[in-house]
Amino acid sequence: MTPEEVARIHQAAFAPDRGWRPQEVRDLLRNPHVSVHAVTDGFALVMTVAGEAELISLAVHPEAQRAGRGSQLMHLWMTGVDAHTAFLEVAADNAAALALYAAHGFVVTGRRAGYYARPGSAAVDAVLMKSALRAPDAAETPAPAPKTG
Fold this sequence. Notes:
The chain is α+β, with helices and mostly antiparallel strands.
């Protein structure tokens, strides 16, 4: 998915707020720790560092919503990163996203009061969420050292 496509979807999904511009997406993707996971009309941008993954943004174009793409994206990124723990934040008034994340094993760990500005209305809290991703494969886990006696 090109930066232009990511920006187009982000702008549509988060309207009326200002969506990302293509150059902002390019800048994000220059970071070697950032990956994009895509389906038709949707994407997830994830930063993975030191065994932890942070969902930067997940968006599905409004015309493609309610067709399972959000769940597809969650599965793609959660199984496609080399991490054991995942984090995200979401606006407290985004009921659909909260339900999606909870359905994929995320639990609330905190709040940032008044984090998201809302033109013409009160700011909205950010809900912080966390999930375990997967246990390391047995092949990745070193065998215990033999006991000597």
